[in-house]
Amino acid sequence: MMLPTLSSTLLVLLGAAATSRAVAIDTTNTADLAARDGPTDLLEGYEVVGELTWIGSVEEGGPEYTFTGNAESILKEILALNPNYAPALEDPPPAENSTNVLAERSKGNIYCNFGGNGEIEVGRIEKEERYLRSLGTSKCHVGAGPGKCVRVSCSYNAGVWLCNDNKYAVSPRCTSLADYVRNIINRCQRHLYAPCWWNEGKTCTTVDEWRVRGQQFDSDGYNVIIGSSKC
């Protein structure tokens, strides 16, 4: 069945921290996720146990729904119920050169070069950020840990994970997770330029792009990771 057309509000949207250890994601626990994510380096005690659970309303004052999947698939389910869905939003985090971001850096809760199978193009992760932010201020849920992760979003090899270090489940706002994705991009992105990049030793290609990989912790005992994944 064809999904309803996105509302104009959503089209604009889609167009447009903690004391735990840094980890890399394991995807060998669930066969389906393993098939898509592939093998990764694992810090003992962490595993991916499924995909994101979203809990929220598809319209103001409406009943609460629960969907499980990645951010994009959850958004499609929301739109199937309400084609005019407009998420409740918060202001995104400030730009890289702002004093607030510099203050965030001083907390030391963002770690670069952790997560997934490696770096990913910034533009691809930004797409996942937009899908995540489109879920609004509703709850993005991960079950009890410690060391349990869910895959929040993944397409074109760009992955986002939510990991829980608590012995109980947590349900932060989806927009907060999107803010953490943005914070990691602001802190960890690097410019990669090579006039002749040998692709598997066969062809010489010019590479000029921004890449990113990293992790941010929250004081409530959960963390967000972005990096490369097979999807």
Automatic annotation (TrEMBL):
<protein>
    <recommendedName>
        <fullName>Secreted protein</fullName>
    </recommendedName>
</protein>
<feature type="signal peptide">
    <location>
        <begin position="1"/>
        <end position="22"/>
    </location>
</feature>
<keyword id="KW-0732">Signal</keyword>
